[in-house]
Amino acid sequence: MTPTSAPLGRRERNKMEKRDRIIAAAGSLFAERGVDEVTTQEIAERADIGTGTLFLYAKTKGELLLMVQNAHYAEALSVGLARAESTPDPLAAVLEIIRPVVECNRVQVDNGRTYLREMAFGDPAEPHHAEARAISAQTEEAIAAILARSGDDAADLRARVVSSVMFLAMAAADTSVESAEIVEDVRRQLTVILVG
Fold first, then answer.
1. What does the pLDDT look like over 35-81, one tens digit per residue?
2. 7 or 192, which is more confident?
3. Structure pTM?
4. pLDDT at residue 5 above 70?
5. Domains (range + CATH), the chain
6. CA-to-CA distance for 186 and 95, rounded, in angstroms?
7. Left, alpha or beta for 183 (phi > 0: left; psi -120 to 50: alpha)?
8. pLDDT tens-place string over residues 95-115
9. What is the pLDDT of residue 85?
């Protein structure tokens, strides 16, 4: 007999529902105008909650952006993992993971850059920051697993280098640079690192 989890109580369901509304409101406003052009009051109004309630979920706009982008990043990683599973060539499989992450980051370039900055330099004790770091770690673990398939003894270290290349390429790219160009730049760099 497998244990089943108890159904969520009303209070927990309400908290999850508010969190979902906040993510949807912040996500749509950030996509429309960018994180710097949106106020927390606008997010609260669109989510149909009070500003004080909003701050119970995230203390800053940076944390709100982390909430939104973490959800998108996790989804992009899931897509990449599914594609990589059926790709036998290690470099091609790594690029299958990277491509949707880059595309996710470039939907709104300034938001993507702010997300990377918050992830790298934000408060590590803050839960949304910790979630972003966990998703980044999952990305590295997935890349390491692909590299290990070909017998790479330094797969963990090489995966960290691959992750760094990806993040720096996204952060450094001019706003006019398309996702495909960034992925191609990453591919060229990884060819040197992984193939030689």
1. 999 999 999 999 999 999 999 898 888 889 999 999 999 999 999 99
2. 192
3. 0.83
4. no
5. 9-57 (1.10.10.60), 60-195 (1.10.357.10)
6. 8
7. alpha
8. 999 999 999 999 888 899 989
9. 94
CA 122, CA 24: separation in Å to the nearest integer?
22
pLDDT at 59: 87
What lies within 8 Å, CB to CB, of 143 at 6+ separation is: 94, 97, 158, 159, 162, 163
User: Do residues 25 and 43 touch, judged by C-beta distance below 8 A?
Assistant: yes
In this structure, the chain runs to a length of 196
At 4, give phi and psi (nearest 5°).
Answer: -110, 145
The tokens describing 113, both together, are 């850059």
Rg of the chain over Cα atoms, rounded to whole angstroms, equals 18
Q: What is the DSSP string of the chain?
A: ----PPPPPHHHHHHHHHHHHHHHHHHHHHHHH-GGG--HHHHHHHHTS-HHHHHHH-SSHHHHHHHHHHHHHHHHHHHHHHHHHT--SHHHHHHHHHHHHHHHHTSSHHHHHHHHHHHHHS-TTSHHHHHHHHHHHHHHHHHHHHHHHTT-TTHHHHHHHHHHHHHHHHHHS-TT--HHHHHHHHHHHHIIIII-
pLDDT band at 122 (very low <50, low <70, confident <90, very high): confident
